[in-house]
Amino acid sequence: MRSGLVRATALLLAVLTSVVPVTHTQADTNAVLVNNVLHSISVLTPLHSTDPNRMIGLGIGLQGGNPSGELAYIAGEYDPTSSLYGQFLDPDQYEQKFGVTQSRFNATVAWLQSGGLSVQTVAGVSEYILASGTVSQVQSLLHISIADYHIDAGDFYANTSPPTVPASLGVVGIAGLNNLEGPRLSRRTSPGTPGPAAPSASMDTSLTSPSDLWSIYNQPSGDKGEGQSMAIFGWGTTNNTLSDLRQFEVENKLPGIPLTITYFGTESQITDSIGEVEWDLDTQASTGMAPNAVAERLYFGKAGTDPDLLGAYHGWVADKHGPQQGSSSFGGCEEAPGTDALSGSPGNPGGVIIAGNPKQDLYEAALRRAVAEGRTMFASTGDTGAGCPAVSIVLNGVTLIPTPMLNYPSVSSYATAVGGTVLYFNDATASTPASRAFEYSWNYTGGGDSKFIAAGAYQNTNPAILLTRCATDPHGTPYPAPGPLCRGIPDVAAQSGDIISNGYKITSGGKNDQPGGGTSLSSPLWLGMWTRTQAAARSRKGNGFADPAIYRLATNPSKYLTDFFDVGGTSTETVPNCNGPVPATNCSHSNWDYNSGWGTPDVTHLTLDLDGTTTPSHMTTPNPVPTITPVISGTTCPGPQMPDATGDAPNDYPAGDGSNMDNLDIVSAAFASPDASTLRVTLTLKNLAAPPPPANIPSALWRVTWTYNDTQYMAEASSNGAGPAGVFVFSAGPANGSLTRVSGTATVGPNGTLVWNIPLSAVGSPPAGASLSLPFAEVHGSFTVLGTGLFYTAAADRAPDLGFGAPWVIGRTC
């Protein structure tokens, strides 16, 4: 099975959306799943038949027992005039009302086993079954052929014709018949353009902390998510997720939230580690916004495949004690019918091949159930602007290009789509919390209107939202004229950053203050903020699916002015961004638009208007701030306290060539006590060049940090990139206070050094015998965007790479 290929915010989901996508070929006997094959796969020439002994995993979706009744019940749950209003179902009630009958479920299991497949069920789920077997067994059972193909992205296998299944089973679709589609995290290849010039030179344009966003988005101080839990969805390994979260909590003085993970899927081992930075971002963004939540639960696929991720979705909605809110920081193309006409012919692939989405119905079933149960799935709109991410279209059979469709699952009417903003802020001081200085829509946030998915009732009844009309459903079946209004996204927005520098501080790989961004950040931020709102709900079942509540308040002019910051309707949005062919009136439009939806939240006022209070209904006692036994690497005396491998400072800044930045590549750092009143700090670089530093880094900063008496101190050297080596400026002092100029020397060249001679009085006056603990070294490169006044900075290297150096005792001699 194929796992994810590259990191970022977008996941290609295989999808399909009609209610019963089967075509009967023999009455009451067989059904052909006509949509369960890649569009225009016949345009490609197969390399050869797939190895018949290769093991593959499948996910089989079954039609629920009462589809029309389910839709009617959901409509009543969210209609204030209905007797069903707010009567959200628990998992057992859902299965009783709308689940698959036990006999049909058992018949499906027996059919799969009759073909030699191994079967796994998800507890409490009748609409989805996992199975695995060899290619030979799958071909025989489904009456298909599976072949290997090649495109620029690599080799893949796929079924060459639609599968045939017993009609009586009511199979909606089968995931896993190809490995071109499926969960994959796509690269942030388009960082966008820098935003407008900052209005003030004192404005911070870089990374926010949790406490910054608490004040900027006006989150209630007495409500931090007590009594609530949160869900994160993903796949693969989580080797550093818990340890990075604990380090993040320590740095930000947050409680240690319990973290659990449940895996779903047919794989025997969990090996895909490509998404680990993503899971750091998701967990730390959500818990940073709701630090007093009682739990964070990860529902993960064992592998980056549709069958496994669908298992995780269904596992969540069937969890009787599962969170009422979750976040999916990934997306793929919605299904786009009619593309077959654009393709070429076998041997002459002159058109396009849509590589996605014959299984959207399987995802829709799980998301629809979540809404029936009053749960909310927040989903990132993507970081590719008007296009879909990852492998979505094959042009001329070989070349990959973005598609004009929207990202799924964010475009689902059963998900809350979250777009991104770039946020500049005024730093917090001792007496003043951080505040918004400037916020505008990021020009690579996903947004626009679907051409096939009908808008939910919460959206299509609002005359202020100028949506287009859909001609066909996702399978190409025409809607009755004039057609329903099409789903438009995003619904809301939150900070995403611009990928250049602006974003959120996370801990990743044991390193603090790493940049996290994209709409992968925006979605879990909303998850955490909505969790605060849910905590104050007086109903035991909470506020239900977020979109109806959000649209109800946002369409009330007096509520909208207090509950949201209108990103698109203010002068701050100076980078118009119409993602795709959408009505111009909905681009950078007041109130709702295709860039930022309703905008970013004022969480306190939103909570008051939904719940009437900001006091949590179930007060719980958060865990204490974690304590961490630091990993110590290095020696105390003699030798460097902070060693580091070289060659790990790549030039990955905008326009960088990826080569190692020797000027910022740490070799080691060490302390010494030359006399009774001085601390000497020495930082060795691979090749400390005389300024100017390498291209794209007009200024640089070198820093060594340590802790004494619960206070962090630092030695810092900077260069403005001009003049002789003497331009290095040396300073030291408390990390959260003013630094004092100190004497220092710079020796340039290979294994060049920066040496600080620091009076002990400048760093807390530690007496002889005092221990300086948790030392580490870090270096940064910074650059200015000409003509804008914007100043960007990001970390380049740290030592030790995944821990701290050995403590230093004042007065020690070596």
Radius of gyration: 28 Å
Oligomeric description of these chains: single chain
Low-pLDDT residue spans: 1-27, 186-193, 339-353, 390-402, 570-586, 785-791
Please give the largest β-sheet: 8 strands, mixed
Output the number of helix runs: 14
Can you give the mean pLDDT? 83
Q: How far apart are the termini? A: 56 Å
Helix-strand category: alpha+beta
The CATH class of the largest domain is Alpha Beta
- CATH architecture type of the largest domain: 3-Layer(aba) Sandwich
Number of strands: 44
Which bin fits the share of residues in helices?
A: 10-25%
Descriptive key words:
globular; about 30% strand; 14 helices; eight-stranded mixed β-sheet; about 800 residues; seven-stranded antiparallel β-sheet; alpha+beta; Rossmann fold; Immunoglobulin-like; 44 strands; disordered N terminus
